[in-house]
Amino acid sequence: MSAAGTLPAGGPATGNPTAAVPAPPIATPASVPRRAGAPATTPGSRPGPAAVRALRALRAVTQSPPGRLRLLAAVLTAALVALLVVSLLTTLARQRALATLDGDSGPSFVAAQQLHAELSGADATIARAFLAGGVEPPAQVTAYQEGLAAASGRIIDLALAGGPREPLSVLTAQLPVYTGLVERARANNRVGNVVGGAYLRQAAELMKTTILPAVDRLAAADARDIDRGYAAATRWYQPVLIAAVGALAAGVLLHIQLRLFRRTHRMFNPPLVAATALTLAATGLVLAAFGTGRARLIDSRDEAYRPMAVVAQARVLALRAWDDESLSLIARGNSDALDADARRTVERLGYDPAGHPTGTGVLAAATAGEGPDEQARDALVPGWEAYQVTAVEVRKLVSRVGGFQNAVRLALGDGTTTFTRFDDDAATAFDAGQRRFTGGLSSAAGAYDHLPAVTGALLGLAVLAGLAGVQARINDYRR
C-alpha cells in the first residue's frame, strides 16, 4: 500500500504526513453576534468597585436583626430631622412675612393714607378760607400750613423708608409748585385781584391731577405688598406639608414598635412611646400655632385693614367734594366742571344730588361690619348727612337771584362746622382701624413666639428617645 493511502480523509494533498491541520478561527467580541434585544455592554455599565462595596456592606448589615434595627433607626432619625427642618423653615417664613407687614408695608400704607388726607385737607381748607374775602381766617390758614408741614415730613419719612421712587419724585417736585401757586393766589386775594381765584384753581387742579394721584400710587404699591404679605403668612400648603411629614415620622415610630412587639412580645418600649408622644406634640403645636396665627391675620385683614382703607377712601372723597364746593363758590357758581366733579364724588360716597342715601357707595361699605371701631365708623353717616343738608341748601341759594352772599355765609358757617365734625369723626375711625390693624399683626406674630425653640427641643428629645429605644433592643442581641 502506498504512503498516500495512509493520509486521513480530507487531509492536505501533500506528501508530508506531519502537516498540521488548520485551527478554527478564534471568536472575538466583535465577531460574536449580539442576541437581538440584549443590551449593549459598555465599560461604564457595571457598578464601580466603590458602589459594589457599598451595596455589599448594606446587604451584610441588613441580613442580621441588629443591622435591620440600625437601618430603621437611621430612617427614623431622617424623618424626625425632616420634620424639624420643615417646621423651622415654614415658621421662619411666616415670621418674616409678618415682620414685613408690621414693620414695612403696613406702616407705609397708613402713612400714604394719612398723607393723602393731609394734602386733601390742606387744599380744601385754603379754598374755604378764600371765601372769607381779602383776609383769610387765621385758624384756617394755620390748619392749611400745619397740614402741608405734616405732609412734607411724611414724604421725607416715606422716602427714607425706601418707598417707590417715581411717586416720591413727583411729590417732591410738584408740592413746591403747588405752594407757590397758593401763595400767589393769597397775595392777589389780599389786594382784591380776581386773578387770585384763577391761581387757586390752578393749584387745586395740580393737586387733583398730579400730586394726589402720585400719593394713590404709593398707597396702591403698599396695598399690593400687604396682600402679598398676608398670602405669604397664610400659605395653605405649609400646614399640609407639616402634617404629612409628621405623619410619616409617627408612622415610622409605630412601625418600629410593632416590629419589636412581634419579635420580643413586649408590649411597650418606653423610649419609643415617649418619642412618639413628643413627635405628635411637636406636630400638633406647630399646626395649632399656624391655625391661630392665620385666624388672627384674617381677623386683622377683614375687620381692621379693609375697613380702615374704606374709611380713608371715604374721607378723601368727602374732602374732594368739600373742596369742589369752595372752588365753585369762588368762581361764583360759574364752574360746571367743578359741580359735575362734586356730583360724581357724592355719588361715589352713596348719595344722590338731593342728599338722599342710595344704599350703596363707600360710606355704606365703611359703616358695614362689626368690631371695636364700629361705633367710630357708625358716626360717619349722620355726620355726612348733616353736612349734606347745608351743601344742598348752598346749591339752592347759589341758583337764586341775590342768594350768592347767603350761600357763602352758610358755607362758611354751618357748612364748615358740619364738615369739620365729619372729618374729625373720619380721622377717629381711621385711627381706631389703624390701632386694630397693628394690634392684629402683633397678635398674629405672637402665635409664633418661641415656636422654633420649643419645636426644636421636642423633636431633639424625640430623636434621642427613638435612638435609645432602638439601641436597647439591639443590646439584647449582644447578651
Written overview of the protein:
There is one protein chain. Helix 2 runs antiparallel to helix 5, helix 2 (65-130) packs antiparallel against helix 13 (451-476) and helix 7 packs antiparallel against helix 12. It is built from 13 helices and no strands. It has helices spanning 49-62, 65-130, 138-160, 165-190, 195-232, 237-264, 270-330, 336-349, 362-367, 374-378, 380-399, 404-446, 451-476. The protein is elongated, with a radius of gyration of 42 Å. The protein has 479 residues and is an all-alpha fold.
In short:
This protein is mostly helical and 479 residues long. The protein is built from 13 helices and no strands.
Topology, element by element:
Blueprint: H1 49-62, H2 65-130, H3 138-160, H4 165-190, H5 195-232, H6 237-264, H7 270-330, H8 336-349, H9 362-367, H10 374-378, H11 380-399, H12 404-446, H13 451-476
- Can you tell me the residue ranges where pLDDT is under 50 for at least 5 consecutive residues? 1-21, 26-44
* Rounded average pLDDT: 85
Gyration radius over CA: 42 Å
Task: Tell me the fraction of residues in β-strands, as a range.
Answer: under 5%
Q: Please summarize the sheet with the most strands.
A: none
- The helix content is over 70%
In total, the number of strands is 0
Instruction: Give the end-to-end Cα distance, rounded to a whole number of Å.
Output: 89 Å
Number of helices: 13
Shape: elongated
What is the N-to-C order of secondary-structure elements (H for helix, E for strand)? HHHHHHHHHHHHH
Structural class: mainly alpha
